[in-house]
Amino acid sequence: MTARTQTTLPETQRGPAERLLDVVLGGSAHLWHHRPGLDVNGTWVAVAGADAKALSRGRKASPGLFVPAAVKLYGQLLELYRLNPTLMAHFASYALTQTDWRDLKVATCALMLVQEHAGQPVRDGQGAIAFHDDDYRSIGEAMVLHYVRRSTRMLTPKAVLRVAELLETPEIARLNRAAGFGDPASRKPPLGRWKRVAQKWLAAREANLPMLQGLVKAGYKETLKKLARKAGYKPQSQGFFEVLGWKQKQADGGHRQVGLHGLTLVKRERFDGLSEAEICEWIELERLSYKEVVGRLPKDVGLTPAILATLLPSLSDRDLRLMTPTLEDLGLLQEPSVKARWERAVANATDQRSLNIAKNVRGEDVRRKLEEASDNAVKKAVAEATAETDVRVMFLIDKSGSMEGAIEQSKEALSRILAGFPMDKLHVAAFDTMGMVLQPKAANRTAVQHMLSGLKASGGTVHAAGVHALHRSGVRIPAEAKLVVMVVGDEAGEAGDQFAKAFHACGYSVAAMALLVSVAGARGNTVRSGAKQLGVPFSEVSVGQFADPYQVPRVLHALMDAPREAGASQSGWVDRVMSTPLLKVA
């Protein structure tokens, strides 16, 4: 008999650990989009390439902050904070120093700057100060001020500005007021300590003009101006205005004293009238960046192979991957030195955006290399999650009749992730009422797609059949290794205790279990209840999350991080978050 029940724990039973995993496993990777989109039931979809269904159901979403995603993510963080402020504080520190999720850094920083634990004095019965409350707002300040030379794990000027923009969004301001973080009668949104720390951040750059000049060269000039205006920053020297090329005039009140006279403004001159060779010489002499150059090129010259080749040292690995179609069009991938630099960028990929870029290139070899970049991102996530422990992974793929209409989505998700696992530590089986062991011919996306191509939805559902099939094929897990089981399907099958017994019967000791939810109709509870019977942590994530190129590595990292101690009731990833030192203002 097939058991069908509610997919998730009731709200009253979901603790901080479950909610923290929800942020990573169910959150949106992007809050800000730079191109027109559609709001399809709260999900952002690019207008370009949208199918007919999305075009008919979606509402226009202008470039910029996608409010539904922002409200969802901030609301999740707020619920986590309400349940456990200390966990939220550690998570904010973890988000900044241990992840590359830029919008999560912005959202966690915003919350920490406005939440109520601000170091207030706590008085005893006689009115004397007994002690001071925790000052978690200082963690938000430390997130803004955190600086590591050449690191990507700190807030950019744009991110510092976005913290304020997020807090000023009416829907977010309402959430903060409802949480008691601001005056409910005030029309102004609660900003907490943002203005104060933004002024400190700007003052540090003004005191170090080479740092300020570097930000201008990186293309942040207008962002810095917006930041200064919003924070009400008052520069102490004319150098601040000169570097930004920012002409000043006296305010109506006549109170301005700095930057009104004798400014030597730094202006960017266009390259009109210069030849290609002269432009290249200028780039090398001034060490100009790509962003500094593209807006200054004469129309009759444009971006040529020689100019782009000269700009290559200023491009990051991510820039190079994104510019692959341009490099191909200009013929630069035929140049050995450029190709070698591009291939290094491919090898260093940390997301799967290359799969989208691959659709816009012509060469088969280039397309295959971009797919390798996608596989490399997953390999890095898996390697980081398993660095401290020998982890073996068992994937069980539901191909029963109830998966009709969902099996193709399962295949697409698996094609994005399976190639990232070491083949000697990966064990895959598909099942209906009978299990079938699967083995990719190679550790790449093409081989995984070939392996999955023959799967068709039909038959009944016995999850345990997949476990027994792997055991019969000779799969054994070393005693010192930890086994993570990932089931792909709707978990509608046998009772959970029967599923759990299969692992005991085969001698498999499970450390953690996850469900990659792929549903065509109703849901069951075989996997969740099986994990409960085994007494191991359980996580679930929709296979739809694997369509997001930025979400795949971080989701896998959280799913793969098995508990550090045997018998632990929560994910090892949650343990890792809690062990992250709290950030402090230097």
Order of strands across the main sheet: 10-9-8-11-12-13
* Radius of gyration (Å): 27 Å
Q: How many strands, which pairing sense, and closed or not: the largest β-sheet?
A: 6 strands, mixed
Q: Give the strand tally.
A: 13
Oligomeric state of this protein: single chain
Shape: globular
Q: Give the helix/strand class.
A: alpha/beta
Strand content: 5-15%
Number of helices: 27
Unreliable segments (pLDDT under 50, ≥5 consecutive)? 1-13
What is the count of structural domains?
A: 4
Note the gap between the termini. 61 Å
Overall pLDDT confidence: 87
**Helix fraction by DSSP (H/I, runs of at least 4):** 40-55%
Structure write-up:
With 586 residues, the protein is an alpha/beta fold. The chain folds into 4 domains: 15-204, no CATH class; 205-259, no CATH class; 276-378, no CATH class; 386-547, von Willebrand factor, type A domain (Rossmann fold, 3-Layer(aba) Sandwich). It has 27 helices and 13 strands. It has helices at residues 16-26, 52-57, 67-83, 85-98, 102-114, 137-145, 157-168, 170-178, 194-207, 209-217, 221-231, 238-244, 276-286, 290-294, 305-311, 317-322, 324-329, 336-347, 354-357, 364-385, 407-417, 445-452, 463-472, 496-506, 526-534, 551-560, 572-578; strands spanning 32-33, 37-40, 43-46, 59-61, 64-65, 121-123, 129-132, 391-398, 426-431, 435-438, 482-489, 510-517, 538-542. The strands form 4 sheets. The chain has a 6-stranded mixed β-sheet, with helices on both faces. A 3-stranded antiparallel β-sheet has the order 3-2-4. It has a two-stranded antiparallel ribbon with strand order 1-5. A hairpin with a 2-residue loop joins β2 (37-40) and β3 (43-46). The longest helix has 22 residues, at 364-385. Residues 393-472 form the VWFA domain. This is VWFA domain-containing protein. It holds the Pfam family VWA_2. InterPro entries: VWF_A (IPR002035), vWFA_dom_sf (IPR036465).
